[in-house]
Specification:
about 190 residues, mainly alpha, 9 helices, about 70% helix, globular
Length: about 190
């Protein structure tokens, strides 16, 4: 009977809080793609986005009794968890790079690049360019860009999850758009928002 009616996020989360793994699988199927896309937009790396998505849902399962749904949706909370996972990933990467710098260098190996790998590298290169500019924004504006512009979270939902007014979210997005319009090359702007 579960598979005939699509349960709401609130219904799923009630079951998840009680330890229902099937309900958690349904939530994962519903939101893994938006979380993955959000993570890619924050990191500029498809592989890191995969790791962040896994970490996000691991945290969601572990904190299933602490989740905060916004207007009945789990997505805004999951995106904030993903943002925090990205921050943890960056801290880990900095430590890892510091360790690698102390090791003797290795020569890169030449490999045969498939079309998919080439496309991924192009995506990552473009996203790296965008991230370099986005990182110049104040942190509050970066967060608004990631939630509202890149991940499609509504202004009211973003306000609820960030604990600020909707007007403040709209203001942050507006200021960020203005700055980015000045800082990003036109060819990168197309398709970014």
């Amino acid at each position: 009977m579960r598979h005939q009616v699509r349960p709401s996020d609130e219904e799923l989360w009630s079951s998840i809080a009680a330890g229902d793994e099937w309900a958690f699988g349904q939530l994962f199927d519903r939101y893994s793609r938006p979380v993955y896309n959000h993570a890619f937009r924050l990191t500029g790396s498809w592989s890191t986005a995969e790791d962040v998505t896994q970490a996000t849902f691991l945290v969601a399962w572990r904190r299933r009794c602490d989740a905060r749904l916004v207007d009945g949706s789990a997505l805004p909370w999951l995106l904030v968890v993903a943002t925090n996972a990205v921050r943890s990933e960056w801290r880990s990467a900095r430590r890892w790079l510091a360790l690698l710098r102390r090791l003797p260098g290795q020569r890169p190996t030449d490999g045969d690049l498939a079309d998919e790998v080439s496309a991924r590298l192009d995506d990552e290169r473009r996203m790296t360019e965008v991230l370099a500019v986005v990182r110049r924004l104040p942190p509050a504006e970066r967060e608004a860009v990631a939630l509202c512009l890149w991940s499609g979270v509504s202004y009211p939902d973003a306000a609820a999850v960030l604990g600020i007014s909707e007007v403040a979210v709209r203001s942050r997005v507006s200021r960020a758009r203005s700055r980015l319009a000045r800082l990003l090359p036109k060819e990168i702007q197309e398709g970014t928002w």
